[in-house]
User: Fold this.
Amino acid sequence: MVKSVGENNNISNSAIIHDGVIIGDNNFIGDNVIIYPNTIIGNNNKIFNGNIIGEFAINASIGWDDYDLSKCKGVLIGNDNMFHIKNIIFSGIENKTFIGNNNKILGECHIGHDTQIYNKVVLYPRIIIGGYTECLNNSNIGMAVVIHQRMIIGQYCMIGANNMVSKHVFPYYITINNKLHRLNSAKLPPDVLQYDIFLKEIYANFQEKNYEIDKYNLSSSIKDDLSLFINKIKH
Assistant:
């Protein structure tokens, strides 16, 4: 399949776009960007210099002798995302690596295979995300964070800079060294602040694998967020 490029795209002459790539409309693709096969890019994305999208994924069971881009599931990118310089986004092995809408990837980040980054997520520079991780809506990850594979990063959380994440990250709170600190008040919807006591109790229950939330008088939006988070961590 040859590549398909939509309308009003600004693509550098030094960008390398492989066959089997689909690009929507109104995207900017800068110098020395490489986009590998089976990548789909939506509309209104800004992909700055040196990004590599859809590179052959590697893990402990795949050797370099198997390097064959036709085996890659590729990457699916939505709309209105910003990728600053020199990020690398690996192709999926089982499903496409996914990046949704209105995300900011702020430079030199490593996004592992089969990762899912939903909407309005902010990744600060030089983050490493292990494969199969899911970053839920409005999550924020500080500079130089390393995330172990298969982690769930909860809605509206903030992970402090230079941290190693080896546990699922509870929504709404600032997390440092895998421990909850305070509500991420700068990013939260206003109604969440009043539920701090309940949310801390729910978090403590989660540590004992007690995922009951129905007994708490929470807003419907918080219940929806927590229910999604629970389903993800129990999957």
